[in-house]
Write a structure and sequence with these properties.
This protein has 539 residues and is α/β, with parallel strands linked by helices. The protein is 47% helix and 10% strand. The chain is elongated and about 95 Å long.
């Protein structure tokens, strides 16, 4: 009989493929430090964006997959490069002009424009941690400022001074000739101005662990590389961090992929072993441009969570990490419904199928049952035709065919109803564009209306709830809609459905009509068609 470990060891799901590489890294035996270390890096130069969440979520999925196939303990670190100099003022902060005088200072030395924390770096770190805590991630947070100043980085920094020439050889080979003239792997923090200086070194004393340089005014300074008085350029810092912490796994975006050989070589020069990597494709905004912390384009974590659950976002992050993804409003409804489809499928799947199911990785192998007896897409359509201003309106429809459902017993459905009302108000309502039917379309709508009136009068619609997504009467109503379309010459029924969407819902697409009529109610559906025929919707 197949066990979870057997299924995981043979699964083609990408988290298990990566986890097996880590097992092979140590041949099933614990490393000398006693655990496998996963790391995610974060540059707090702007407000955290959703891609940062994706990196931690995906790393967590690999960590969980590793735990399913290995007994070696693990740790996960979220490392913030908050000692980096602020190279430009973000556009999406209060009073950005006031930050200009602090350009090039470490982010933890820049005042917080929001006025809530000791520094801009601290503010952005707090936001990141709050976001990650919302999802219940298990991680340890490390601030680069604290890491440098506390001496935890000193051993590697002293080694960097001793091996400065080897490090420079790696870096100079990757730079244009003009940049080579001023480049140094070390960035001193000016003792007076506190700014991060991008200046060449006059001398690096490896045995003493000191650097000598001229500042921008031509004054010479000598500083120790230890104690937070000097930091590393970001590319050397990447590899040095791997060496200092003995990192076993880190993933990063495709924009870093060309630097992977540099990161690896820096790590090795500084006495470390390069970690396993995973390169994911970038996130794009609705215009197809890369999302940026400083620009603030694309969805934020808070924005997604305004309209959908945390689990739906995790589901979206699981899908095809090596394919570029648009992070725009219209991906949310589909992600919600697909997530619940996977939840409903899980109990009846084989073990091999379950470990390939995204919900296994989202919930650590123990996904909950779905209470979504109505799809999110259908809730949106109901919100549109009912002009719903609160979720209680949607519950009125839900209870018509699922009387045992209630907010207390179906909390995920209750939450989704609230999200649907909010999403409708912000994104659907402003785009609705009803049109009047043409003569031929009017004739078809009149016949559909008459057929539905006859059903309502006959009492033919079943009253009992027929199970998840099996709405009473939906097959009957769907047959009526199809038969009416065919009778009026619609050989391609999609054209007929589009007429109904545009005339009755003010949209170019929508729900399955049988399901919609059953849930909205046959009498209400009749009135809706009558309104369209009377010009009340398009007017």
């Amino acid at each position: 009989m197949s066990t979870l470990r057997d299924a995981a060891l043979n699964s083609k799901a990408w988290p298990f493929e990566e986890a097996r590489k880590l097992v092979a890294r140590y041949r099933g035996k614990p490393p000398e430090k006693g655990y496998v270390l996963f790391e995610t890096g974060y540059g707090p130069s702007g407000l955290p964006h959703i891609g940062t969440f994706g990196e931690v979520a995906r790393t967590t999925m690999i960590r969980r997959a590793f735990a399913a196939i290995s007994d070696i303990p693990t740790r996960m670190i979220c490392f913030s490069d908050d000692m980096d100099g602020m190279r430009k003022v973000p556009e999406n902060v209060p009073d950005p002009v006031a930050l200009r005088e602090h350009l090039q200072k470490p982010l933890t030395a820049v005042p917080d424009p929001f006025g809530t924390h000791d520094s801009f770096g601290d503010h952005n770190n707090a936001m990141l941690r709050r976001f990650l805590d919302t999802f219940g991630f298990e991680y340890e947070f490390i601030s680069a400022t604290e890491f440098y100043k506390s001496g935890q980085f000193d051993t590697v920094l002293l080694r960097a001074a001793e091996r400065y020439d080897a490090l420079m050889e790696v870096m100079l080979a990757s730079l244009r000739s003009e940049r080579q003239q001023t480049y140094s792997v070390f960035l001193p923090i000016h003792p007076e101005t506190g700014r991060v200086l991008y200046v060449p070194m006059k001398h690096v004393d490896g045995p003493k662990g000191e650097i000598t340089f001229d500042d921008e005014d031509g004054r010479e300074w000598t500083l120790p590389v230890t104690g937070g008085q000097v930091k590393l350029q970001w590319k050397p810092d990447f590899g040095a961090r791997w060496a200092a912490l003995d990192v076993d796994f880190e993933m990063y975006g495709k924009d870093h992929s060309t630097n992977t050989p540099i990161y690896d070589r820096i790590c090795e020069i500084l006495g470390g072993r390069k970690p396993e990597h995973y390169v994911y494709e970038l996130f794009l905004d609705e215009a197809g441009e890369k999302i940026s912390k400083s620009k603030g384009n694309g969805l934020t974590i808070d924005e997604w969570l305004t309209y959908a659950s945390t689990e739906s976002l995790s589901y979206y992050m699981f899908l095809k990490p090596r394919t570029a993804k648009r992070l725009s409003w219209d991906v949310i409804p589909k992600a919600v419904d697909e997530y619940h489809q996977q939840l409903r499928a899980f109990p009846d799947q084989t073990l091999d199928q379950q470990v390939a199911n995204p919900v296994w990785h989202i919930h650590g192998g123990n996904p909950p049952a779905s209470g979504m007896v109505v799809s999110f897409a259908l809730l949106l359509n109901l919100a549109a035709v009912a002009r719903a201003e609160d979720k209680a309106t949607l519950w009125g429809f839900i209870r018509q065919y699922a009387p045992e459902a209630a907010p207390e017993t179906h909390p995920d459905l209750d939450q989704a109803a609230g999200f649907a009302v909010r999403y409708y108000a912000d994104f659907v309502a402003p785009t609705l564009a009803f049109r009047a039917p043409g003569d031929a379309e009017r004739a078809a709508l009149e016949d559909l209306c008459a057929a539905l009136r006859a059903i309502a009068a006959s009492g033919e619609v079943p009253a009992a709830y027929a199970g998840e997504f099996a709405v009473p009467g939906e097959d009957l109503f769907m047959s009526v809609v199809r038969d009416t379309g065919k009778a009026h010459g619609y050989e391609n029924l999609r054209d007929w459905f589009r007429v109904l969407y545009e005339v009755l819902l003010g949209a170019s697409q929508g729900p399955r009509w049988g399901t919609f009529i059953a849930l909205y109610g046959v009498e209400r559906s009749v009135r809706l068609i009558e309104q369209a025929l009377g010009g009340d919707l398009a007017g």
